[in-house]
Amino acid sequence: MKFLSGCSIIKYTDYVKGKVNVMKLTYLGTAAAEGFPAVFCNCKYCIEARKLGGKNIRTRSQALINDDLLIDLPADTYMHFLQNGIEGDKIKYLLITHSHGDHLYAGELHMRQSPYSHDERSEKLEIYASRGAYDKITKTGFPKSVSLSAIGAYESVSLGKYTVTALPARHMAGDFANIYIIKGDKTLLYAHDTGFFYDEVFDFIEKQGIVFDMISLDCTNVDIHIPDSGTHMGFPNIERLIARLTDIGAINSDTKKIVNHFSHNGGPLHAFLEERASEYGCSVSYDGMSVEI
């Protein structure tokens, strides 16, 4: 086990350029904790989602970059791998945003050892987790085929062809949740389970001169009002966030903007979300959607 706390920050201008010509992000799960339709819900939105199926069926949040960097580990991971033809033993790196159960089912890590798995093509699964997630995994335990490090706000780590920088999420007091900048030849901002960014996050992005090729933003609340001090976002917050990132030069007309992580309380039927997101120049994620940047 390793701690990154106290390590020197790798400046953005010092990043070693990776060898990824195209970065592919696959959204494996795109819902909040209850899923959509929600597991025990009979509201009109969940009834309609069950009837419509397709892109309206959303599982718990998880994503995969190329075929070797996984983001979050919900209990739906096994189903995600089956549905998307993912060979789990090839995954080299795992980023955990925070310790909530829909983003971290730590017990799954015990499956990465004999007699549950053999002949893994990646010798180690390297995990980099927020402090709260680190503590949760440590309590649960993990096999020797897994390494675990805590990564805190504004710390960076090189993971093969990627450089990952953690930024503080506005989420879950005391958990020290992260959002992540992930850079290969392209630069991605993966920002879920967070409210409106702290001023210091905007300052960091601006001072480092970061320009994102793609941003993926939390839209849990959809059109339900939540203040910028809240722990999730909806379209009004996203509108202000996009304006702020534009003002500091972090995004431009070429940046792909995608909204993700939806709660059933917002009535996130896919056709409705597409209509709303288009007003802000955004696309809408769905389970199994792949985006190349």
Question: Would you give an account of this structure?
Answer:
- It is a single chain.
- The protein is an alpha/beta fold and 293 residues long.
- The protein has a single domain (2-292), classed as 4-Layer Sandwich (Metallo-beta-lactamase, Chain A), CATH 3.60.15.
- Helix content is 20%, strand content 23%.
- It has helices at 44-52, 77-84, 131-140, 199-207, 235-247, 270-278; strands spanning 2-3, 24-29, 62-65, 69-71, 93-96, 125-129, 146-150, 156-159, 162-168, 178-183, 187-191, 214-218, 256-260, 283-284, 290-292.
- Strands 1-7-6-5-4-3-2-15 form an 8-stranded mixed beta sheet. A 7-stranded mixed beta sheet has the order 8-9-10-11-12-13-14.
- The longest helix is centred in the C-terminal third of the chain and has 13 residues, at 235-247.
- The protein starts with a strand and ends with a strand.
- Residues 5-20 have low confidence and may be disordered.
